[in-house]
Amino acid sequence: MFGLVAFLLIGCPHDDPPPAGNVRVTVVAVLATADNATVDPKLTDLAKEVRKRDKSLTGFRVAKCEAKSIPVGESLTFCLVEKQELTVTVDRPKDKDGRVGLTIQPPEMGEITYLCTCDKYFPVVTPYKTKAGETLIVLVMGKPCTGKNK
To answer: CA end-to-end span of the chain, whole Å?
Structure first.
């Protein structure tokens, strides 16, 4: 895992505003490989940051993208790749700066709790490798975006 907060223009199904009291959580499963150098244009900034820590990862592609509305205090599970899952809990509603508190549990990792910044994905490089040897990276974003830094 690393602390990059990336702005990505990845459109997922159901990116409409969440109902009042809920948070729209978007999860993107990215697969990184050493077998090619093809980088999805939407992932250029992410690829640069990941390569700072692991130069062997040269190819990056979006494998899956999903958005769900989650009430504060509740959890939902997102299916990623090869039966791997990410559980997301909305711990806190938006604060005065428009950030929401999330706890995530990526595959083969412990829980991570953080404040999610508006329109920015929080990436986590997991230790999970697919059958093809690709590294699973999960990106998580929570909305609504109603703070001063919108």
So the answer is: 26
Q: How many CB atoms lie within 10 A of CB 58?
A: 17
pLDDT tens digits, 109-128: 999 999 988 778 999 999 99
CB 142, CB 100: distance < 8 Å: yes
Contact yes or no for 33/47 (Cβ under 8 A) = no
- Nearest 10 degrees: CA dihedral of 42, 45, 51, 54? -70
C-beta separation of 28 from 80 below 8 A: no
Give the global pTM: 0.83
| CA proximity to 124, closest of 93, 94, 80 | 80
* Six-digit token string for 93: 């509603």
Kindly state the tokens that stand for 127.
Answer: 């230790």
Q: What CA–CA distances, in Å, run from 117 to 30, 54, 62, 90?
A: 20, 25, 21, 13
